[in-house]
Write a structure and sequence with these properties.
- By secondary structure, the chain is α+β, with helices and mostly antiparallel strands.
- It is 34% helix and 26% strand.
- It contains 13 helices and 12 strands.
- It has helices at residues 4-7, 9-17, 19-22, 46-56, 85-93, 113-116, 120-126, 147-156, 174-181, 184-195, 218-232, 261-267, 302-308; strands at residues 25-28, 34-39, 61-70, 73-83, 97-101, 104-109, 135-140, 164-169, 202-210, 234-239, 284-289, 294-298.
- The chain has a 6-stranded mixed beta sheet, sandwiched between helices. The chain has a 6-stranded mixed beta sheet with strand order 3-4-9-10-11-12.
- Helix 5 packs across helix 10 (184-195) and helix 11 runs antiparallel to helix 13.
Length: 313
């Protein structure tokens, strides 16, 4: 099986070669590992966000920024297409690895997850493992990782620190907001996996999602990005066969549909795990079967989207 860690080295090289242009900053630590600041202390950029998002999908997806108009407001959308989405989104893009070293904590995603196999049940369902010596990890964090953190990641990945590359960005940074807006296919795939669908049956996918505006408070931004997908995220899948489960994989299937994530988290006392998982799904889903079937599910809610951004409908 090919290596998604090796697959993204060309994008890592591009980030490093265009460091000044993309407004990122790289550090070579004492243990010879590499940290690329895409939006923690560095300002980052749209270009850095696009490259980070493609790295996050293991190099199996492409990202572009396209314009969109909602109720006379000009908004930016990410447009994504991805092949092998079970591997790209569930084995790489999904932030399924929690890293905590002393007072440092971060949600980790990226190709390195396929080495550490976290969470195990996801990789068992998809039957994919990467044994690359190179380990590329993406950290959503407000603090840059140091030697201790990269040593920990190297040990977890059974490799040397010099083989580890960590990209870091705050969620409420330019790059972080772009990366988060590319997660609609990921959300659809996670939801289908929860429903018991054989996710390897999805062969290709695409999405279009408004990019949530940067907010001063990280949680305010996270709420807005989740509302972006749940109320205006559009996903198209190519699947080998039709399934009734697709009808349960849009956010309007949830009993929580119509409530903002800010409200839902308040009701759950800040614990995301207490929120109905069905709401973490795209608003609209189109499924084109290899057998020629075409089905559409869900609905868009522009009023909820604009309210999440603090805009008047």
């Amino acid at each position: 099986m090919f290596s998604i860690n090796e697959n993204v080295t060309c994008y890592i090289d591009e980030l490093l070669n265009r460091e000044e242009e993309l407004n990122v900053r790289s550090y070579y630590l004492e243990n010879q590992s590499t940290v690329i600041d895409c939006g923690v202390e560095a300002a980052g950029s749209i270009g850095a966000g696009i490259l980070s998002a493609m790295i996050g999908m293991g190099g199996l997806g492409k990202v572009s920024i396209v314009p969109g108009i909602i109720d006379s407001y000009y908004l930016q959308f990410t447009q994504v297409w991805v092949d092998m989405p079970a591997i790209a989104c569930l084995c790489s893009q999904m932030p399924g690895w929690k890293i905590k070293v002393d007072d440092f904590s971060a949600a980790a995603s990226g190709p390195a997850r396929a080495i550490v196999q976290k969470p195990k049940q996801v990789f068992s369902a998809i039957d994919y493992e990467d044994d690359s010596e190179t380990a590329v990890v993406m950290l959503l964090t407000s603090k840059l990782p140091g030697v201790k953190e990269l040593d920990f990641i190297a040990k977890q990945c059974s490799t040397e620190p010099e083989c580890v590359v960590a990209l870091a960005a705050k969620p409420n940074s330019i790059a972080g907001s772009i990366v988060n807006s590319t997660r609609a296919v990921e959300w659809a795939m996670v939801r289908l996996l929860q429903l018991g669908y054989a996710v390897n049956e999805v062969t290709s996918a695409s999405s279009a999602v408004p990019i949530a505006p940067i907010r001063a408070e990280e949680q305010d931004h996270m709420n807005a990005f989740m509302d972006s997908i749940a109320y205006y995220g559009m996903v198209s899948l190519y699947a080998k066969a039709a399934s009734d489960l697709f009808g349960n994989a849009t956010s309007d299937y949830s009993k929580s549909f119509g409530k903002s994530f800010k409200m839902l988290l308040k009701d759950a006392q800040g614990d995301l795990s207490k929120i109905d998982p069905a709401i973490q799904a795209p608003a609209r889903l189109m499924v084109n079967g290899h057998d020629g079937t075409l089905k559409a599910y869900g609905r868009l809610d522009p009023a909820m989207l604009l309210a999440a951004y603090g805009l008047k409908a």
